[in-house]
Design brief:
The complex is a heterodimer of chains A (130) and B (261). Chain A has 130 residues and is α/β, with parallel strands linked by helices. Chain A has one domain: Rossmann fold (3-Layer(aba) Sandwich), CATH 3.40.50.10580. Chain A has 6 helices and 4 strands, in the order βαβαβααβαα. A 4-stranded parallel β-sheet of chain A has the order 2-1-3-4, sandwiched between helices. In chain A, β1, α1 and β2 form a beta-alpha-beta unit. Chain A is globular. By secondary structure, chain B is mainly alpha-helical. Chain B has a domain of 180 residues: Helix Hairpins, CATH 1.10.287. Chain B is built from 4 helices and 2 strands; from the N terminus they run ααββαα. A two-stranded antiparallel sheet of chain B has the order 1-2. At the A-B interface, α1, β3, β4 and α5 of A face α1, α2, β1, β2 and α3 of B. Chain B: Belongs to the V-ATPase D subunit family. Chain B: Keywords: Ion transport, Transport. Chain B: This is V-type proton ATPase subunit D. Chain B: GO terms for molecular function: proton-transporting ATPase activity, rotational mechanism.
């Protein structure tokens, strides 16, 4: 069990986002957004001109930061960096794929749900919905 | 099976047999305990699995509602609301705190959200559509609630998954490697001890045989001596010693030089 990452109990952690503009605006309205002293944000707005490299870098930065507990990522953005999301296996921060407005949610693409399916393909819970 | 022939390299003694038996007892108990742990974890795991699936489903609906609320707010307050929101970001008011939950010795993270400080950008939508903006905020707060719950479930899922794998590996190692090896060692030591016992028994039998033969020889010699003794007695009574009688006969048998005819 030595290889398992230690889970610290923290009093306050942030929620990071990689999503389209509308979703980000919505969550910012709820008060999730944070800008630190160096003008670094805890969200990335994915537009049509955002490159895969930018998403990649943002993902790596958010998952590497100490003060982030949850990373919300739009599914279409997650699909662009699928290899990174799939290879990510740390418990904290948790990666959560969320549906976006233009892209309907496809549970088959979700890295965790596909793992659920892989583990319990015979079980009714996982197989019944697909 | 290759594990069947495996055993520990030990000196086959009674002490070692006792130690091996104690180790086997320990391994059996450990195996039973780990099995129980694995079962408990698996139970928890399945519960989490069910919750994940249902929460993921509800997440879709909630995201839809919140997107719709945002669209409403945009329609009423104008398209430029998003610029106001984007510009007003300072520090997070909605944060997450994590704590640990202990399930059969495995620490599972649990997230819960809380609001830190007063809600900012209250002036957003002051001109028009303020109510829609507040509703939109409520919708997204609700979404965050569900998402944070889902995040903790998902993290528990990943942690438990690994813990179950480790536990099962241990259970299998005890069951298929450690226990057979100890059992084989015990069998080996018992065999060796039996062998030693048989050898000892055989040796004792052998010695007994030797002793018996020696006693027989002795009795035979004694008997012979007694016979001789009695013969001597008889001949003495006749007036001639048996040895001289023997001599007489043997002397007669010998060729005497002095005898002419």
């Amino acid at each position: 069990m030595a290889n398992r990452a230690q889970i610290q109990t923290r009093n306050s952690a942030l929620i990071a986002m990689i999503a389209d503009e509308d979703t980000v605006v919505g969550f910012l309205l709820a008060g999730v957004g944070n800008v630190d002293i160096r003008r670094k944000t805890n969200y990335l707005i994915v537009e049509s001109k955002t490159t895969v490299k930018q998403i990649e870098d943002a993902f790596k930065e958010f998952t590497g930061r100490e003060d982030i507990a949850v990373v919300l990522i739009s599914q279409f953005a997650a699909n662009m960096i699928r290899f990174l999301v799939d290879s990510y296996n740390k418990p904290v921060p948790a990666i959560l794929e969320i549906p976006s407005k233009e892209h309907p949610y496809d549970p088959a693409h979700d890295s965790v749900l596909s793992r659920v399916k892989y583990l319990f393909s015979s079980e009714s819970v996982a197989s019944g919905r697909r | 099976m290759s594990g069947q022939s495996q055993r520990l390299v030990v000196v086959p003694t009674v002490t070692m047999l006792g130690a091996m038996k104690a180790r086997l007892v320990g391994a059996t108990r450990g195996h039973a305990l780990l099995k129980k742990k694995s079962d408990a974890l698996t139970m928890q795991f399945r519960q989490i699995l069910k919750k994940i699936v249902s929460t993921k489903e509800s997440m879709g609906d909630i995201m839809k509602t919140s997107s719709f609320a945002l669209t409403e707010a945009k329609y009423v307050a104008g398209e430029n609301i998003k610029h106001i929101v984007l510009e007003n970001v300072k520090s997070a008011t909605l944060k997450v705190r994590s704590r640990q939950e202990n399930v059969a010795g495995v620490k599972l993270p649990k997230f819960e959200h809380f609001i830190d400080g007063e809600i900012k950008n209250d002036l957003t939508g002051l001109a028009r559509g303020g109510q829609q903006v507040q509703m939109c905020r409520q919708a997204y707060l609700h979404a965050i609630e569900v998402l944070v719950e889902l995040a903790s479930l998902q993290t528990s899922f990943l942690t438990l998954d690994e813990a179950i794998k480790t536990t099962n590996r241990r259970v299998n190692a005890l069951e298929n490697v450690v226990k057979p090896r100890l059992e084989n060692t015990i069998i080996y030591i018992k065999g060796e001890l039996d062998e030693l016992e048989r050898e000892d028994f055989f040796r004792l039998k052998k010695i007994q045989g030797y002793k018996k033969r020696a006693i027989e020889k002795q009795t035979a010699a004694a008997n012979q001596f007694a016979e001789q003794q009695s013969a001597e007695k008889v001949s003495l009574r006749e007036g001639i010693s048996i040895s001289s009688a023997h001599n007489l006969l043997s002397a007669a048998a010998e060729k005497d030089e002095d005898i002419i005819f």
